[in-house]
Amino acid sequence: MRHDDNLTTERPTFVTHLECSMTGERFEADRLHGLSNVGRPLLVRYDLDGVRGEMTKDALAGRPADLWRYRELLPVRDCADIVSLGETATPIVPLPRIGAAMGATELLVKDEGRLPTGSFKARGLVMAISMAKALGVKTIAMPTNGNAGAAAAAYASRIGMEAVIFCPADTPEINVREIAAQGARVYRVDGLIDDCGKLVGQGAKERGWFDLSTLKEPYRIEGKKTMGLELAEQLDWKLPDVIFYPTGGGTGLIGMWKAFDELEAIGFIGPERPRMVAVQAEGCAPIVRAWEEGARHATRWEGSHTIAMGIRVPQAVGDFLILDAVRASDGFGITVSDEEILAAVDRVGREEGLLLCPEGGATFAAYAKARADGRVRADERVMLFNCATGLKYPMADHSRTIAKDEPVDWASL
Ligand SMILES: *Cc1c(COP(=O)(O)O)cnc(C)c1O
């Protein structure tokens, strides 16, 4: 098997049309689209009977382990439009020591930090940029808290597409520099990600940029959907009991939920679903608040703050899609504090050797809480999401110094 087989073998494609996620209104495929006429995300629809005949479990078994193995359920028609930096399948890493200490039967982490640019934003952006290329886009623009901008910059630069990125001024330094190092123009803005989004919207009108904001074009969901396809396949088509997802714009949660429906339609899984848990920070929890209030839409969270930048999203255009999935799955929303996040990152790093990002730490902290209050049982198979490598974030300095020319007190080392 050649490592790039998925990128070079033409396969039949099955996109039939796009559909407004709110009203069901139909839109033509193979055209450039933003939001629907009512300002909501568009979802890509497939001829799933056709997919069923082509993408069999046997056919999958012979393909390299990257996200392009699921081509029949992806929107890119032509191999020539695939933009790739090697979107490898990410491992499911168990936490056996912590799991045992907590009495858990199976505590698993999907470690997305292995993807290009060090985060799962690569899944969404590789698809969005490939489709933007297919549909003739010259310049993309997007707001970011860091990781999305980095992935967009990398894939755009790879094909000579211009990328203009706006981030809050307090975005982690490494992200801002990474975006520029990967060839994009990056601007720091004295506001939050939705303020950056407004600038992108204006720039799209003034300069004709294509707006790649979360859920404002249809294909990032399709890329993030591969997390659901991949984890199902890795678990031999048996989904976990509970998924803890660090929720910002919610693309991944919405995408996985869509993936499970499509997998059921092609006969790979039954009607069982994991309980989907939306994890947010105490300082920015619009989705959890709406879930608690029983509302279908979430209002903007004022004064957002948390160290987990990836989930510092005061308002999400796909709010109802997140909330619908959480409710339909009998899941819940839950918040954790920054102190709990830091303690979680520290514990998982020290005891399991797995360096989580703060958002990943949030899912572990939320799991611990949900176990304590009984919402998740010890015997349930649980999947936490670590969405970026911990190496991109500031780390506490616990080092000590030693003077090589002084006598060493060995007993104290
Ligand atoms: C973007 C991001 C999230 C949130 O993902 P959504 O699918 O947009 O909700 C979580 N963690 C990290 C590290 C991120 O970069």
TrEMBL record:
Pathway annotation from the record: Amino-acid biosynthesis; L-threonine biosynthesis; L-threonine from L-aspartate: step 5/5
Gene3D superfamilies in the cross-refs: 3.40.50.1100
What does the record give as EC number? 4.2.3.1
**What cofactor does its activity depend on?**
pyridoxal 5'-phosphate
- Recorded superkingdom: Bacteria
* PTM annotation (N6-(pyridoxal phosphate)lysine): residues: 121
A GO MF term: L-serine ammonia-lyase activity
Keyword annotations for this protein? Answer: Amino-acid biosynthesis, Lyase, Pyridoxal phosphate, Threonine biosynthesis
What reaction is this protein's catalytic activity?
Answer: O-phospho-L-homoserine + H2O = L-threonine + phosphate
**PROSITE patterns per record:** DEHYDRATASE_SER_THR
Query: What's a GO biological-process term for it?
Result: isoleucine biosynthetic process
Q: Where is the Tryptophan synthase beta chain-like PALP domain?
A: 83-387
NCBIfam families cross-referenced by the UniProt entry: PRK08197.1, thrC
Give the protein family: Belongs to the threonine synthase family.
Q: What is this protein called?
A: Threonine synthase
Organism encoding this protein:
Sphingomonas prati
